[in-house]
Design a protein that fits this description.
Elements: H1 14-18, H2 22-30, H3 33-54, H4 59-62, H5 65-96, H6 101-122, H7 131-156, H8 159-179, H9 190-195, H10 198-211, H11 218-273, E1 283-284, E2 287-288, H12 289-301, H13 303-321
Antiparallel strand pairs: 1-2
Helix pairs in contact: 3-12, 3-13, 5-11, 7-8, 7-11, 8-10, 10-11, 11-12, 11-13
Pfam families: DUF7972
Keywords: Membrane, Transmembrane, Transmembrane helix
Transmembrane segments: 34-55, 75-94, 257-280, 292-313
């Protein structure tokens, strides 16, 4: 394998780098969580209906008042327990926002210090206040050094460095366009940041700096060092905004579960106290309407659970994709190889 082969840049999007289908990424990450909640509920009904046709069924035996009451009685227990657990988690998140004055002052001081370092790096008197603009400014600082690097290596005739700078500029422009006009609280702010594979960019930059240390001029070496330093600021910024986003999502989970728990408990109570499956007659496409009605109401009663599942799927997927902080690449890819 040649030296240039081990520095082939990975794909520009998280989906392409993980070699997963567009539909899977849409379902796990990008789709509206309430839409995913609806799809999960519909899939539950579909499985319920499918089991009727596939498995042995004794409809009169399972549609009695006692059987339905037992099923929905367990739903009430599950919903109450689940709501209590979610509220406890939300309380833990809320507790992180509270603390002694000195602790909050130290946290504020750390944030101001980090912003000051970034402002020096992006050549701005006051850095952007919104997360999307702040991250865009960091990417623009990387792009500015990449342009300077590309211009300086033209005289050194080092093709790899030129291609490296060119790939950074192309990807940076794409991610900046995705961040434009996004608002914090929506996943559109986090997704472009996941696509920006700063870890590989740092590893590749350091590898090239070591590989061509004796072949490039002082200007090229300086621009490359500044570029790598700018990339290093991206890691803590991304982790900080990701943490804030997770807290935002947990609040959304708690609110969604509370909204869904009231109708869920009402449906479960109705099914236990008043529902009579024998009053529902007829069938649809060979499926008894009473069986279908119970399946639909059961999926609605489990709405708090499907709300939690829809949000947790996104959170754990994002967490898995961003486990490593800094120049570490956990996924299988063509990474920078050993430096001779």
């Amino acid at each position: 394998m040649s030296d240039s082969d081990d520095l082939v840049p990975p794909a520009d999007t998280m989906r392409e780098r993980t070699d997963e289908s567009t539909l899977k990424i849409w379902f796990l990450v990008t789709a509206n969580r309430w839409l995913v909640t609806g799809l999960l509920s519909l899939s539950m009904v579909a499985i319920f209906v499918g089991l009727y046709f596939l498995g042995p069924t004794n409809l009169p035996g399972v549609m009695g008042a006692s059987s339905v009451g037992n099923v929905f009685g367990s739903v009430i227990i599950a919903v109450v327990t689940g709501v209590s657990l979610i509220l406890a988690i939300a309380q833990l998140v809320l507790s992180e926002q509270m603390g002694p004055l000195g602790e909050k002052q130290a946290e504020m001081r750390d944030q101001i210090e980090f912003r000051g370092e970034v402002e020096d790096r992006i050549d701005a008197a006051v850095g952007p206040a919104t997360p999307s603009a702040f991250l865009s400014a960091l990417i623009e600082a990387v792009d500015r050094q990449a342009r300077a690097l590309r211009e300086s290596v033209a005289d050194d005739d080092v093709t790899e460095l030129y291609e490296y700078a060119d790939s950074l500029l192309e990807h940076g422009e794409e991610v900046s366009d995705q961040l434009e006009s996004t608002e914090f609280g929506s996943f559109e702010v986090i997704l472009p940041v996941l696509n920006y594979n700063y870890s590989w960019k740092i590893v590749a930059g350091r590898t090239l700096a070591a590989r061509y240390a004796d072949s490039i001029g002082d200007d090229t070496e300086r621009h490359l060092e500044k570029l790598i330093e700018s990339l290093r600021f991206f890691a803590p910024a991304r982790e900080y905004f990701k943490m804030l986003y997770f807290q935002w999502e947990i609040n959304n989970i708690a609110r969604g579960v509370l909204y869904a728990s009231i109708p869920s408990l009402a449906i479960a109570a109705y099914m236990i106290l008043a529902f009579d499956a024998t009053l529902i007659t007829g069938s649809t496409l060979g499926l008894p309407n009473r069986y279908l009605a119970v399946g639909l109401l059961y999926s609605l009663a489990l709405l708090p659970f499907t709300v939690v599942l829809a949000y947790i799927l996104r959170i754990v997927t994002v967490t898995k994709r961003t486990l490593a902080l800094g120049p570490f690449i956990l996924r299988e890819t063509k990474q920078a190889g050993d430096v001779n």
